[in-house]
Amino acid sequence: MSSYGARSGAAAGYMMKMPPLADKRAAAEALCSTCSGPIYSQGLNTFKVPMAMFEVNRAKVVQSMLEQDPSAKGLILLEGGKQQTRYDTDHEPVFRQESYFHYLFGASQYSDCFGTLSLPDGEATLFVPTYGVDVATVCGASPDFEFVKVELGLENVHDVVDVKAFVEREMKRLDETEIESSSSDGLNNEEKKGGGEPATKSKLYLLKGLNTDSGNFATPASFEGIDKFRDVRDDESLFRSISESRVFKSSAEIDIMRYTNWVSSMAHVEVMRAAKPGMMEYQLESLFQHHTYTHGGCRHMSYTCICACGPSANILHYGHAGRPNSRLLEDGMIALLDMGAEYKCYASDITCSFPISGSFTDDQKSIYEAVLAAQIKVMAMLKPGVSWLDMHREAEREILKGLIGCGVLDGGGKDLDEVIETMLDADLGAIFMPHGLGHFIGIDTHDVGGYSPGKPARSERPGERKLRTARQLDEGMVVTVEPGCYFIDPLIDAAMSDERQKRFLTERVNDFRGFGGVRLEDDVRITSDGCENLTLCPRAIEEVLDVMSGGSWPPATDVLPEMKRKWATCKEGRMEFLDM
């Protein structure tokens, strides 16, 4: 007998022991609201994550599956992330859990696992590896199943070697449950499909689908012998349900994202205070990572830090291979720092721009104010029902308006709004903001669900085609709002050769070659009637300069309420709102 043992009692009797799905979700939400039950924390003043949050996630996915097919039954099977090694060496990079698996099980610290959810009751089972003496000597003792069960708030935890036997047993049990149930209802053999066969065969639901940001596919779980279930395998339903569930954040998920934004915002402030000519870009990266790990318990960054100063700031994803945050900071440069930490696998994505010298030049101020105006304009319009594509265009309008104001573009003395619309029709906005306005964010920085089946398709227009979603916004979504303005030589050169675009450019544009760029990025929650800004960074020019000169943060007064920042701090592991 495998380690999970045999079930006692009739299958139907067992099924009656599981609480209804709605009751499980309600109980989990109650635990989340009071931060009760099993808790994840990195200790000290780091955030306390109620593990019931993942029970809510599981209930959402199972409910979605049942809404797709009310008769759905079987097992959802996922395979967790594997501990990798670096190339051909035995060096192990720090493990980070696969995102879909984490969404359902919250097992951020356990690699090489499998997990199942039963349909329709939503019972969760995790399978973790155990070790022999040699591995245990190096890596520590095998996990205690009962400890893991309590730690993660799961119904069952077994050895990973038992996956195959468990799946076989559970699939059979679920089919027998229907036969037994129909017999107890007085149905005779002729009324049962196939004379004893269940009317609906149990399915094995696996995760497979396209990530529209990366172009990669989620990999279905696999173990030796899984081909036995090829006739009842479903590779489509789960991806639709779990991807769409991840688009809409629960209250508990919003709380943890509020924490990651708080930690990362305070780290950005510390970097602003420290930055000065003579430093290296990588030192700014180091300061950010130090603050978020030391004071926030954030071991992982949400993505590779972008510490782009001076001309580097016109490279949108600076900091990667070939551009390793290695420029010397010089007086007169503007810094564009795009950095965010994650906690319990939930991301933040924040960009600040500021002058290294501690004061803006006139040109830097003009571009910064144009980008800030775009952020403010979008924030004022965000609410359920708004098209993200329309928001992108609004940001382009504000940036083009600012470029006309500082003489880079020629408004021709005509009606300003009319001229800007003509510029937009000529795709001039994409020359200066060649990326999308923002994206969904959650467990992944570029979170899933952007171009789900049945949702608006990707635009083919320049700029717009870089958008990671074209959906209408709805309550519970979290998006980044990150307008930017850059002076990228190849794009400027192309515009000066384009008949539609070159007539708007002036010689002033050449003054900005080598300027770099400005981007401002906040993480924003869509509420029932508007939005809430989770990011708490200095945004008004006076805020930026005050912080750089040693001023306190958060400020005593919010001088820019248009940014809709919801001021908060972490106390004793919980987020508390501040009265400004």
Automatic annotation (TrEMBL):
Positions of transmembrane segments: none
Keywords noted in UniProt: Dipeptidase, Hydrolase, Manganese, Metal-binding, Metalloprotease, Protease
Domain of life of the source: Eukaryota
Any one Pfam family match given in the protein's UniProt record, by short name: AMP_N
Keyword Metal-binding: yes
Cofactor field: Mn(2+)
Chain positions covered by the region annotation Disordered: 177-199
Enzyme Commission number(s) of this protein: 3.4.13.9
Listed Gene3D superfamilies: Creatinase/methionine aminopeptidase superfamily (3.90.230.10), Creatinase/prolidase N-terminal domain (3.40.350.10)
Keyword Hydrolase appears in the UniProt entry: yes
Broad class of enzyme this protein falls into: hydrolase
MF annotations from Gene Ontology: manganese ion binding; metalloaminopeptidase activity; proline dipeptidase activity
CDD domains named in the record: Prolidase
Every Aminopeptidase P N-terminal domain range: 49-188
Catalytic activity, reaction form: Xaa-L-Pro dipeptide + H2O = an L-alpha-amino acid + L-proline
GO term, biological process aspect, one: proteolysis
Family per similarity comment: Belongs to the peptidase M24B family. Eukaryotic-type prolidase subfamily.
Subunit structure, as described in the record: Homodimer.
Protein name: Xaa-Pro dipeptidase
